[in-house]
């Protein structure tokens, strides 16, 4: 469908190949009111755009396409319709343009606006160039492997908001954190022609949300956003531990955002919680001797702690709470930044992972001895997940984890704030202000520090433990938004554990109290007609000493006192995220995931099935890792533009940019060598010539 001038909606991309083999990329951004035409140089493959109205800048997509084809559809050899441009690269005799043909709005609207799209279907458009270059069979195979990289369902982006940093980011969309940008190399050609926004900023990982409110009642939304680091990209047995960039293998930053949409939309309260997962941050690896080996051989480098300090310093800078930003009048010195490492490895005598546990301990002793950690404070919690499950069962394993996590989670906290659609409402803000178009965010509290989970691969145990840690925070996040998950707080509703709940409206007011809406601040306030006083705080607000109360509960107490529908919604997205991370790292889905369904009544029915499934996945992983890890590693490196001298040796690192004439321009009847006064065709025009 071709869009007219008044049809501005989602971004539209049209790739047109003419009968003359001229190639044009027509882009109409959702954030702009015009359409740009980008021409592909037929010889060098370089992108061309001058921004001249009527030549490569038009009021609508329809006008642009009419100009390119002279209004005749018979002049087009092929047309590809897409939703977004993901990257472009010139690879010898032809160029590859990566586009998303189908998108899924997995987080439709963040507080303050912004939609996160996951790439549902993608396509590499092959563009033949008139520049044959000698390329070996190995290089041609590598190019084919690059085009076979699995993109769909594993990459996402946002066109209007920076999502490479914790929400809400104060940075502009075109100033992302490069650690989480996976198409930086592929997007460079668009930056070179002054159109950086025409190629999205692509992240690898997972982003989805769930609405956990009942129909017709005020509830909330929870989003899980998982950003995979590109500092140590690759597969299971080729990207473990630290590398020269002080990045660890399978490193993921996870963010859990909860918000309560309001009917008027003027004020949206929200909060967010951040944690990390990754392999142990020392120099180590594992080697598979053969495809049927039971255990891979773990080895540790001679200088295992080189880069460990830089890794923790980076975390300290990212997760340190800048107190001056929260309260400009505060004169307190910045406090310590806690980084709590939850190590889930086996550490019993004779276990292969024990060597990693010992080196993990020694690495922290080494870091303290350097005296260079500054305000960063590191705590290590060793919790042998598999051994505890085997000895005590799943329920007591979860209870034990909660006991370990209680103190650090409460100390680190989570970020809280409100989005105001009108900037004047921010005048009453006493915290950090982040402007956002006509409105802005008022941050009442900012998370200080981070919990980091790890097992050997940052996979199955890590996903399970991080879920149960995030679950405790989720209940507290809801409570702070006025959404009670307590069953005994649900007046007038069924107390069945599987029923949905009423959200904020469940917090009934005591007799004599009334809730009103303040039109200036956009906040609710409460009137006590008994004493003729008003308050901004809900009279049923939990006392501070009652916060985080579920950390002290047994599993059965948690289950019997908590509305389980939202709990299972959260488990659902953790299961999906776990499969995505496992597939990217190992080529197979996550194992031992049945524990995430522990709150469902039918959990026990699938225990035998889950055990058989785990065995099947183990065998699949070992085979895929042994046979395919090296080729998948090469795919990731080429996608990121790494080690091109090895994978694509004929490709220049800094290609010479020269203008060339369009293909076959001398074979067409040419009315005039010089430009026509009436704007007609000329020899150097990329437009179809008139006969």
TrEMBL record:
Record InterPro entries: SAC_dom, WW_dom, WW_dom_sf
SUPFAM superfamilies on file: WW domain
Transmembrane region(s): 81-100
Domain of life from the UniProt record: Eukaryota
Record keywords: Membrane, Transmembrane, Transmembrane helix
Domain SAC: 146-483
Keyword Transmembrane: yes
Pfam family, one: WW
Domain WW residues, every copy: 507-541
PROSITE patterns according to UniProt: SAC, WW_DOMAIN_1, WW_DOMAIN_2
A GO term, aspect molecular function: phosphatase activity
Protein name, per record: Phosphoinositide phosphatase SAC9
Species assigned in the record: Aegilops tauschii subsp. strangulata (Goatgrass)
